[in-house]
Amino acid sequence: MDSSSPSSTSIVETGDTDSTWRGTTTGQRRTWQISCGDVVDRDRQLTVKVVQGQVVLVGPPGETAVLSHDQLVQLRAALREAADQAER
Question: Is the pTM of this model over 0.70?
Answer without folding.
Answer: no
